Amino acid sequence: MTDTDVAPAVPAGPPKAPSRTRRRAWIVTALLVVFMMINFADKSVLGLAADEIRQDLGLSASAFGLASSAFFLLFSISGAAVGLLADRVRPKWLLLIMAVLWSVSQAPLAIGGGIAVLIASRVLLGAAEGPAYPVAQQTTLSWFPNHRRNLPGALIVLGITLGVLVAAPVLTWLINHHGWRSAVAAVALVGVVWTLLWIPFGGEGPYATTSDNDSPAEAARDDGPGTGKGVGAGIAGQAQARMPYRRILATRTWIGVTIGYFSTYWVIAFALVWLPSYLREGLGYSAAASTQLLMLFWGLSGILVLGQAGLTGWMLRRGIASRWARGWVGGVLLLISGASCLALPLVPAGAVTVVLLVGSFGLSGAMGGIAATTIMELAPAHRRGGALGMMNAVVTTAGLIAPTLIGSLVDTHGAGGYEDAVLITGALLLVGGTAAVTLIDPDRDARLLSV
């Protein structure tokens, strides 16, 4: 490790937040964890009810894959647009509008309709959910300084895991006993409840308008939590606000994070839409065993996300550069995940298959939290929303491509199509891991941006 690989000492930052502010920070974090749980419960409905929906609506695998991909038709565009808007409009209200639209978009499908209603519902839902992750991370991390962001950032990622863990048994029960439309109605209703809680308790934190390289005096001049209009950035903040987004997007760190996170999102799209069917049709597991494996995969993924946050935070607090604490930790996990994917089709179903499944679909999840905290560290305060939103826009195109491609492979090659899909996924993970290890260095690129 060279001298340049040691991070600067942790800045003093703003004065220590009072206990009331700390409590508010964790209340907001908890609400946004639930927000992400609802987000991924919405996404998981189609995968959990895939067989029932295909039978009820008479859909082929390709048609079902196309309907699933329709969710991502406007997902990336809205993610980028609202990300840019989040640099100008308080994220509190953007998050509220998103949650309302989630429930509204699913109401017609819960009542009835065929393939046209299904596709229209998923397109609108995707447009409303596209900006959810970057805006949720931006809002959560605005309550914490850089060296304390790993845990809250990981908890937002954990909301993805918890959403699927809670949704899988509950929605499966609803689907089996009351039909798949009842599951759609349930997630829409939960979204309404969340909005009623977010109105009084939601908001932005004291770090919303301060960059990580601001001086303690600059940071201390914030108006306070939730204002979204602090003056702590001062003249430096005004200069940062004029920085073109293209400078941030051209950094090696932004490119490396985006490639790495793209491979992770490909895995997420695969897991949400086709993993239940792959376990049953491709690997021969029963419906009950498939549900247990899904819960095992998501549960261990959540544990890993928290473990990565602890390790990264420990490294940063000891002065180890983000290149190692974030880039290498996330990149190595992606490389192991890719190797597991490539090995999966080579072994018969059994204990080794379970290990490889967990490695293939579980280890890559940590990259989501790493991506958000790295961009927050890299980008000036007044460009974070756009930088996060545009990263998410590129990354989530994986959700548009993967379900349709996998459905086409299954229609063409039968159960063997799943093996082809797993091999493609493994190759993408290796590319993502390599990009993360070789390109991510937010300390270096933040210094270059400040020149």
Shape: globular
- Number of beta strands: 0
Number of alpha- plus pi-helical segments: 22
N- and C-termini, Cα separation: 25 Å
Overall mean pLDDT: 86
- What percent of residues adopt helix (DSSP H or I)? over 70%
What fraction of residues sit in β-strands?
Answer: under 5%
Order of helices and strands: HHHHHHHHHHHHHHHHHHHHHH
> What low-confidence regions span 5 or more consecutive residues with pLDDT below 50?
6-16, 213-239
Class per helix and strand makeup: mainly alpha
**Multimerization status:** single chain
The whole-angstrom Rg is 21 Å
Largest sheet: none
Would you kindly provide a written description of the structure presented here, covering whatever features stand out?
α7 (132-141) packs antiparallel against α19 and α16 (322-343) packs antiparallel against α17. The protein has helices at 19-48, 50-57, 61-70, 75-85, 91-111, 115-129, 132-141, 150-178, 180-201, 216-220, 234-241, 245-249, 252-273, 275-282, 287-317, 322-343, 351-362, 367-378, 384-395, 397-413, 416-439, 442-450. 76% of the residues lie in helices and 0% in strands. Residues 6-16 and 213-239 have low confidence and may be disordered. It is mostly helical and 451 residues long.
